[in-house]
Write a structure and sequence with these properties.
The chain contains five helices and seven strands, in the order βαααββαββαββ. It is α/β, with parallel strands linked by helices. The strands form two sheets. Strands 2-1-3-4-5 form a five-stranded parallel beta sheet, sandwiched between helices. A two-stranded antiparallel ribbon has the order 6-7. α3 packs parallel to α5.
């Protein structure tokens, strides 16, 4: 791989379970659960904090190098051609969701919470992102091509990457 010049990056991130489960409830109800010492709420909240801490750390690493960033919640569409680099911050689900829209750009997966999230497709966690970014910029990062599935029925394409 040749050294890369990266000016713009898209950060595709997941919504935390805490937001998904408790975002629609009033704070008083969540507060009552927290005061009762609910262990599951505490675990979900810590994971939420680690996830968003990772997202901030990744964005900071990029911006410290002068790379403009845009955040996009997973599941939203984007045009990969508008970015030099796509970074998924979450786990495998977030990576695969972003990969559905990436054909020609480099996609780096960052596992945002290694204690809670599966990240087989992720190249690093937030702590390792700066080193990973350095390897990408210098052309020293290992690149793994992932095959995609195309389905045809009677010669007609019904599912395509």
């Amino acid at each position: 791989m040749l050294p890369m010049i990266i000016r713009t990056a898209l950060l595709v991130y997941k919504q935390s379970a805490y937001e998904s489960y408790f975002g629609r409830y009033r704070r008083a109800e969540v507060s009552r659960l927290a005061q009762s010492g609910d262990r599951q709420l505490g675990r979900i909240r810590r994971s939420h904090d680690r996830h968003y801490g990772s997202l901030v750390a990744v964005q900071r690493s990029l911006e410290d190098r002068g790379i403009r960033c845009r955040r996009l919640l997973r599941g939203r569409s984007f045009d990969e051609r508008a970015y030099d680099l796509i970074v998924s911050v979450g786990g495998d689900g977030t990576f695969l969701e972003a990969a559905r829209q990436v054909r020609t750009r480099l996609l780096i997966g960052v596992n945002s919470d290694t204690s809670h999230s599966v990240g087989r497709f992720c190249y690093c966690d937030a702590a390792g992102f700066e080193g990973a970014l350095e390897r990408v910029l210098r052309g020293k990062a290992p690149i793994r091509a992932v095959r995609r599935l195309e389905v045809r029925i009677d010669g007609r394409k019904v599912l395509s990457p």
